[in-house]
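Researcher: Please predict.
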Amino acid sequence: MTTSAPPVAIVMGSRSDWPTMKKAADALDELGVAYEAKVVSAHRTPQRLVEFATGAKAAGHQVIIAGAGGAAHLPGMVASMTPLPVLGVPVQSKALSGLDSLLSIVQMPGGIPVATLAIGEAGARNAGLLAAQILSLADPALAQRLDAQRAAQTDSVAQSVED
């Protein structure tokens, strides 16, 4: 049974990941794409993880953005339990500046893909944009908004180093 969940789910392993993952939400907001954000820890709330990942498609989600730091198992575990595209965002960690997170997310075994973005806020923003691009394949109005956003970004870049 499909319900009315927003097309994008943003999940993270901890509330402390929200300042990073909010960049994905901001990108989606700019494009008028609905999402829900929640904490789903692979290690501390494993049952919540299973319920979310196995029910995400039936709930109506179409793309999942999963951010995690440190061991960063969340994106891979979510991907192992859903046929939906999963976009992994390595959250910058204190111990290894996010390199640990990146390697944990990007090293998925063949057959369980996770599209892995850059470490930190840039990766989170790009995850939001990539989720919108995926959705725009079936949504011409969203595709137009993406084109307009890209054109505005291009127009905002100065051609000169002078003020």
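Model: The first helix runs from residue 18 to 30.
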